[in-house]
Amino acid sequence: MLLVLCVDLDDDLGRKTGVETPVIGRDAVESAAVALAETDPEDSDVNVLFEGIHIYDEVDDEAVEVAAVTGVDGNDVAANRAVGEEVDQVLASLSSGEDVRALLVTDGAQDESVVPVIRSRIHIDGVRRVVVRQSQDLESMYYTIKQVLDDPETRGTILVPLGILLLIYPLAIVADSLELPGSSLGIISGLLGLYILARGLGAEQTLDAAVERVRSGLFGGRVTLITYVVAAALLVIGGVSGVQTLEQANRSSVLDVLAALVYGSIQWFAAAGVTSSLGHVTDEYLDGRFEWRFLNAPFYVLAIAVVLHGVSAYFLFEGVGISYLAITLTGGTLLGLGSTLAFAVAETRFGRAEPA
């Protein structure tokens, strides 16, 4: 017996028409195809159903049945499982005692991904992929392009870079007429390159997520929003201070340059790290997730700062001896170990602190 099996992996038939699946029998499949065509004439699954009926009508020299099975939308694993279950229902409904063979009818490679699932239940004679002839015509090409450009995401991906590219030449003419510097064209091209690079790397999603975090921080009373801004300002000040120290030191070797940059900026960087870590600890406490070990962060920052300050001073200034270096190394180590031990004991004795 030949079973003509129409496959709709994303369940357009069920979602758009409300028809219960699996659909078994020529009349039932025809009614389902008409219902889908009336609901969405552009759906390619309409052609799959009518192709299944066409094959059913052509085969007249042996027992034949036609059926339509569907999966679910949005999850390939769940869709394959749903198709397998509906194929089991179709096979159970067939009263023929003959060996059943299947001819699959699909509209593309996505639906054909379910072939191994069906093959595990029934022998497959072949797969018929339905392709609409009109899609090769110029009229259909125009319609397809129109449909693609109606999509907002596609417009942002294709039309915006194309529009910027077309604007480069007139903007260059305007810059020339206004006697602007010749680098204006390079600036425009650079901005276009940055935009395309950002689109390619998906940076707009990262930017949207950052904006959402800032918005939720403003309305949620997040202390870290303020401390991060302060920490960023301290980092900038630290960078400037490091450069000034380098200019005053007037050193040329790589080691001396690094030592001067670290020595001039380390105190500001340490202040930034302590500020941001205290803001994070405060938010954790307010959210009821505070743990004593979180307080290690500012002490670790201070310990690292003490060590780097001692090392950079030792290499930068001739008057700093090995004893000062030893004191800073020992002090930074003891500060880190002491904070770790102290907060571990506090964690053991008092457990997690609860917000007031």
UniProtKB/TrEMBL annotation:
Per the UniProt record, which residue ranges are transmembrane?
Answer: 156-174, 180-198, 219-240, 260-282, 294-316, 322-346
Q: Which InterPro entries match?
A: DUF373
Assigned keywords, A-Z: Membrane, Transmembrane, Transmembrane helix
Can you tell which superkingdom this protein's organism belongs to?
Answer: Archaea
Name of the protein in its database record: Putative membrane protein
Provenance organism: Halomicrobium zhouii
